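pasting for ref
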Amino acid sequence: MSQHQLQGRTEAEVLWFQRRSFLQAAAAWTSMGGFAAAQAQSRGNIVELLGDATLNGGRLRPEHTIQTGDEIVTGPRSNLVFVVGNASFQVRQNSRLSVERGSTLNAVSLLRLLGGAVASVWGRGGNRRIVTPTLTAGIRGTGVYVEVLPSQGGRTYFCNCYGSVEVNAGAESATSQSVYHQSFWGEITPKDGRMLTPAKAINHTDEELEYLARLIGQRTAWQISGKKGSKDGSGYAPKL
């Protein structure tokens, strides 16, 4: 088990991948052949749903299909894992988000997160974005964790777990090249004159990203390289 730090989240929230129900659902999903097979069989793309959630204002059920253009709201003690095209998502409790259409109905061009938290893995493709009240990230093939804190006016925590990301907050921007968790805060007002500030890696685990990658037939950067770095938010693995 990878080490992780929690800030305003519970251990149970970040260890969702250990539940027997998810392991069985994930095994069934991958053995079936993933998203393409689910579409061919007219099967929904929800891998697991625990607790209450809504889809476009109506109750979300495990057999439903989440499509681009949909708005999702999760309730207390809920957990949602779903796949759209070559992107997989795990949505924490008390989250509100929408997924917007890309070049096809099954391609997500934008994830808009208004509150709560989402871990996600994105396969390679065209330019896609994650938008929150205080931060915008342009991504390609990568794994990320993003959390919006409404209690702090929408201040955003963003971790580029691996990959290449263009991060913007206010008039500031940064190119993040990460192989092992590079993290930022998107501030509401300048902190020491900056809107984009460094952060430590919090509230998510390596294993979460590994399971999400597996759902779309991929591996994380540290699985491919066989080495991990210090999970301090710097984004780098040690040189051998």
